């Protein structure tokens, strides 16, 4: 009613008209905008990794979880035992089993009959029994993080959850439970070993220059990088059926210019080798195993035209776990 | 002689003259330049920190060494005992003693009579006995790294050398030997404490959110930053004669957006309080000490308008020190 009243006011009719017109335009625009907003689709794209913890749906977000890659040869009993443990590890996204039992059927039927399982498990059938099969850039790999485990190694869920959190703080490093080192000798020839070798001589205590990938987290990008290694690296690994882990440490050290690994001291790590019925014991029992690894270090130095490995003496443990006594001072 | 010969050649006299003239000019210029270069002073400015290790001259390079800042009150016997130990720590550049014994003469005569000493020791006489005196931006401070020690705390040289190397890898953090934490309660009021408090509840094990500066390395830049804190922070520290270390942790956490500290587990750390003849025991024996620190946490949250402290559960130890058994697996 005021509307008509305003219309008739003499002397201000022009101004009022303009005001009315402008008001109408504004109101119409607001209504249109409101309508559009209501029509917008809900932004909920499942392919976008969420940045914060979402309520648990089918699978964990690719940023907050990792993929377990486990290569297996002639120890299916151990594999299945370990899978029961590893399939339930927190933050696990998927398991990729690299099946090096050439010509042998994967236990898919049995696996499915014992479902449901906490996460998808993919069996990748291989055509040749190669140590470096586990270093392929598997298309099933969706996460940034890879956890690689040997098929005879049992690491507790606590250790894995902690090491994963450490990896997230050091994503360009191999974060794992088994440290090793190289030392140089006056002749220039390198040797590979562990605590039994002399310390490299940088201050007191020991140093490590590698973290073995048979029990470690690393960035999936390094599997991509590994596909671009010189042929000589593949030839070396195939010739020895060994040293893929040393090669990975060379790759990472070269890439970062820093020590390749970060050692996390495990609270509970076990080797289940003795428990297998297959009678098969791991490659590291071969007489020439350690000599081979020294040989690999020197070959890789040739291929890389230099020694990229660097030393570290940082050992990481979990504060106050298993109990607070692990950090109490004698103060 | 060829000179005169050229002069007399007919038909090319003009061109030759120009060539001769140009040559003379060039030669003269070169001679002048050579003379000037010989006259340039030797670039050896002692005030410029060198970038790499120089042969040990008077002092260690400012990048590869640290300054010890030790505040002292009423425990000169302990101070002198500790100085004998700390003055010989590797990578130490200089010692700054913050003399809170107001009106009392510094032991300079005695100190000098017992020289020479491995590094310069500067006694900074204070006018008021304040806890935060040690957090001044001392002009004598030349290094990027500061080691701050309480005047009753003895940390072994091994621990210090290792923690310094850790600080160099985490220069924006407070790297030290004494972890503490805050917890929040349903009422929103924070509490301060150590292992005796409940865990903050992020997975298993404990967490820490502060590393005390009474036994820690940190970047000297933070002393600069501390001069720009709100007045309320100084008032709080002066009111309680406490909490300067909590305030520093708030500062660092706010600055980095990450946990302020990195905890290095000491092998050998001792409190020498009992050994003093002065009969004076540290502030932390006061009945209200811990309550005061909870009070400080809440006051600082008000001043900072939020809680910047973050949790960490990373505990760092030195690989293979004191002996290699500290990293052997039960594998």
UniProtKB/TrEMBL annotation, chains A, B:
Record bears the keyword Chaperone: no
Subcellular location: Endoplasmic reticulum membrane
Membrane topology (UniProt): Single-pass type II membrane protein
Pfam families xref list: Glyco_transf_64
Keywords: Disulfide bond, Glycoprotein, Glycosyltransferase, Manganese, Membrane, Metal-binding, Signal-anchor, Transferase, Transmembrane, Transmembrane helix
Known function: Glycosyltransferase required for the biosynthesis of heparan-sulfate and responsible for the alternating addition of beta-1-4-linked glucuronic acid (GlcA) and alpha-1-4-linked N-acetylglucosamine (GlcNAc) units to nascent heparan sulfate chains.
Full protein name: Exostosin-like 2
Source organism (scientific name): Aquila chrysaetos chrysaetos
């Amino acid at each position: 009613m005021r509307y008509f009243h305003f219309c008739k006011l003499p002397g201000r009719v022009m101004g009022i008209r303009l005001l009315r017109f402008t008001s109408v335009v504004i109101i119409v625009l607001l209504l249109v905008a409101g309508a559009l907003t209501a029509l917008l689709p809900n932004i909920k794209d499942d392919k976008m990794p969420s940045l914060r913890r979402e309520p648990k749906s089918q699978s964990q977000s690719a940023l907050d979880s990792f993929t377990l890659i486990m290569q297996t040869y002639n120890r299916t009993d151990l594999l299945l035992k370990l899978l029961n443990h590893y399939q339930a590890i927190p933050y696990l996204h998927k398991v990729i089993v690299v099946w090096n039992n050439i010509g042998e059927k994967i236990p898919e039927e049995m696996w499915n009959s014992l479902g449901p399982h906490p996460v998808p498990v993919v069996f990748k059938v291989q055509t040749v029994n190669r140590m470096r099969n586990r270093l392929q850039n598997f298309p099933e790999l969706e996460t940034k993080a890879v956890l690689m485990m040997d098929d005879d190694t049992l690491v507790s869920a606590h250790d894995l959850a902690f090491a994963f959190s450490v990896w997230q703080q050091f994503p360009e490093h191999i974060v794992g439970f088994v440290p090793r080192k190289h030392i140089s000798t006056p002749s220039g020839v390198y040797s590979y070993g562990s605590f039994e070798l002399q310390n490299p001589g940088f201050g007191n205590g020991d140093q490590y220059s590698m973290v073995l990938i048979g029990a470690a987290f690393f960035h999936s990008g390094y599997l991509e990088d590994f596909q671009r290694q010189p042929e000589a690296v593949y030839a070396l690994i195939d010739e020895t059926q060994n040293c893929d882990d040393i090669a990975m440490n060379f790759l990472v050290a070269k890439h970062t210019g820093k020590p390749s690994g970060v050692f996390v001291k495990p609270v509970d790590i076990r080797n289940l080798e003795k428990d297998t019925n297959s009678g098969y014991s791991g490659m590291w029992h071969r007489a020439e195993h350690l000599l081979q690894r020294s040989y690999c270090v020197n070959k890789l130095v040739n291929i890389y035209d230099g020694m990229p490995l660097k030393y570290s003496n940082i050992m990481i443990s979990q504060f106050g776990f298993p109990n607070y006594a692990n950090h109490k001072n004698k103060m």
